[in-house]
Design a protein that fits this description.
Elements lengths: L1 H17 L5 H20 L13 H13 L4 H21 L25 H9 L7 H16 L3 H6 L5 E2 L4 E5 L5 E5 L2 H18 L19 H14 L8 H14 L4 H8 L4 H4 L10
């Protein structure tokens, strides 16, 4: 039975990747959480139950209890519960499971953290740092930071951009977000010029293979990773002497707050950010006048 559960997990992950368009990072997170469910199921196996073990309410209740016993944060448990619920819904829809067992998995309440945007002065200081160096990497970093600040992309979305996704004649980028949803986000002439300078004078020096499609590449000429970009942001924040936590997400928050301060309506900011629900975007409204 355990092998069947694992086979169903593989089918579920394949479904998320091919039909839902989930990123590789998201699929790895789902796989890790669901494999933990399998590990728990294995721990309950005895010679008497090995042949009859199945995904049922008792097993799921025990799994939820085990997560709480391990001392995980509420947010971590909520994520693992959400993965299990999505998997169960998939099994029900496929006819692999007769009963909907999702009510058994009660997710803990998680207080969403208040977004932490950078102040305008901190953001200016951060964006100024790459310009102090003449290297191809510095031109790349300036283009990445300016583009992130101008579009509010998620770090994973920024790293997923290909050269063809940036239209420097009409000044917009084409972003494939969560669930394969496409967003068209405008950029101004100044940012377009910075990105063009990188493409014409720095990217050509960094790539080793002319067939490479990634917009932003590392020193080996390969697509830069989200983790690599995070380290780059941290490095410039340290050089700028900023005394606040700076991440790609905080730059995204800064974009959202600035849009609202400039008079953009909530719905348009929601679309630019790629939020599934406007309730997520509303978290920024409390910051409009205080930051």
């Amino acid at each position: 039975m355990l092998s069947k559960i694992q086979a169903n997990i593989d089918a579920f992950l394949d479904h998320l990747g091919k039909e839902k368009g989930y990123s590789q990072n998201t699929l790895l997170a789902y796989a890790g959480d669901l494999n933990q469910l399998v590990d728990y199921a294995e721990s309950t196996v005895t010679p008497e139950t090995n042949e009859t073990l199945r995904l049922d309410a008792k097993l799921l209740a025990g799994y939820l209890h085990s997560l709480k016993d391990k001392g995980y944060k509420s947010s971590t448990i909520a994520r693992k519960v959400a993965a299990a619920k999505s998997f169960i819904t998939f099994l029900v829809e496929r006819g692999e499971l007769r009963d909907d067992l999702t009510p058994v998995l009660v997710s803990p309440k998680v207080k969403k953290p208040t977004p932490s945007p950078l102040s305008p002065s901190d953001l200016r200081n951060l964006l100024a740092e790459p310009g102090k160096l003449p290297t191809p990497e510095a031109k790349r970093d300036s283009a990445m930071l300016e583009l992130l600040c101008a579009t509010g992309l998620r770090a994973s979305e920024l790293m997923a951009l290909d050269v063809k996704d940036v239209n420097l004649k009409k000044n917009f980028i084409r972003c494939r977000g969560r669930g394969s949803k496409i967003r068209i986000i405008p950029i101004d002439d100044r940012v377009a010029k910075i990105v063009k300078d990188y493409c014409d004078n720095a990217r050509t020096q960094l790539i080793n293979d002319e067939k490479e499609t990634a917009l932003f590449v590392n020193r080996r000429g390969e697509r830069l990773t989200r983790q690599g970009f995070w380290q780059i942001v941290q490095n410039y924040a340290n050089k700028a002497g900023l005394n606040v936590k700076v991440t790609p997400r905080s730059i995204r928050h800064s974009f959202a707050v600035q849009k609202l301060r400039s008079g953009a309506d909530l719905q348009s900011v929601k679309e630019l950010l790629g939020h599934a629900h406007v309730s997520t975007t509303k978290a920024y409204t409390q910051l409009r006048l205080t930051k």
